[in-house]
Amino acid sequence: MIKTDVIIIGAGPVGLFAVHQLGIKGLKSIVVDNLDKAGGQCIELYPDKPIYDIPAVPECTGEELTKSLLEQIKPFNTKFFYNERVDEVKQDKENWFIKTNNKNEFTAPNIIIAGGVGSFEPRKLALKDAEKFEGKSIFYAVKDKNFFKNKNITIFGGGDSALDWTLELSKFSKINLIHRRDEFRGAPHTLSEIKKLEQDGKISIKTPCQLVSIEGNENIESITIKYDNEKTEKIKTDIILSFFGLIMKLGPIAEWGLNMDKKTIAVNPENFETNRKGIFAAGDICSYPGKLKLILSGFHEVALASVECFKRARPNEKYRFEFTTSSKNIQERLGKK
Amino acid sequence: MSKITYIDNQGNSNTIDVENGLTVMEGAIQNDIPGIDADCGGAMACATCHVYVEEKWFNKIPKADDAEIDMIDMAFEPKKNSRLSCQLVVTDELNGLVVTTPEKQS
Questions:
Q1: What is the CA angle A48-A10-A116, rounded to 5?
Q2: Is A179 close to B76, i.e. CB distance below 8 A?
Q3: Residue A312, Cβ neighbours under 10 Å: how many?
Q4: ipTM of the complex
Q5: Of the candidates B39, B73, B77, which has its C-beta nearest A248's C-beta?
Q6: Percent of residues, chain A, with pLDDT higher than 70
Q7: Do the Cβ atoms of A41 and B106 come within 8 Å?
Q8: Domain A124-244: CATH architecture, name and number where available
Q9: Are the Cβ atoms of B70 and A284 closer than 8 angstroms?
Q10: What's the pTM value of the predicted model, to 2 decimals?
Q11: Any bridge partners for residue A260, and if so which?
Q12: CATH number belonging to domain A2-121+247-333
């Protein structure tokens, strides 16, 4: 059991800045995120796309913003728990207990939920039969390449992941690449390599078509695809790899007894506290009158939430508002002299 | 104001007045029309505001750009007449537009 002042759920820009706002007030925090790295939507959805509305930063990418935020919170030596999802939240008097799917346990008087629109999960195949083969012959990610050696693999998708894995796995397996339209979207160099593999007969590309059925009992034996001209084709397949991006699922948060407004959590805009004392929500996941889903709004929200967190974590101390430019305390916490 | 009709995959139809300048997605969200999630809020980053545009309208409305077409690849059961409703800006020309929402968005 790890004790801290604030448990932050979500390592997106808002979660990261929460670490800063808490840190300069002398509060310790830990961060839990379902992804394998910091950045949240900025990293998963638009790492290379520019953002133009961060105050005083005319232009930066999602990746650059994440890097700068991590740099800014370095002095606080915060512990991050990646690839973990918070499954359980329990209350004991003034403290909250949380348990992750990785069996890690934390306790703190405060929780800040900065979970964006929920946790990212791969978008699954629409076909009903797909579920029973999932994890056995249908995969949405490649964890161990060796498993995919010497197989008949059908890859669905038209973006970077589908193309990159087609190139990689074609080194030792037979690949069918299937996409719903003729154009693929990838780096020019990747596209030309794919074309070359097809010309050399190393891979087979089938477009424009979609999956209509999967045949097999324990394991997949074949699949049937349908072309836009209604023609169907059966393809011998051992493994399906599907790359249709990520979706955001709210997950267990919906069951924590918080007042929800559709997929968002209702908060008091004075301190961004939810209906449960000591649980705060900030960023895209919170809602209040006039809410804008902007990164800069999230920064404001955690700044205010951190004040209330201080009051709960240090009930015997008086909160004093301070500026980073003039406060010796803050400068010490930031490692400046 | 333009009339926009949203039909869900069960055939239930809702026709509402949407202010010009809003998107077809915003019209649905602001009027609690079910079937459109719009998780990313209109940033064209999630494909959960996916709709099928009635054939006769599909060729009339401004074409999708590359980024939208790429994102539609990620949508649930995309078809030839698929669009992201966050990219359909309501104008007088769209008065009477009919869109159908898919069985689900993710």
A1: 65
A2: no
A3: 19
A4: 0.77
A5: B39
A6: 100
A7: no
A8: 3-Layer(bba) Sandwich (3.50)
A9: no
A10: 0.78
A11: A265
A12: 3.50.50.60
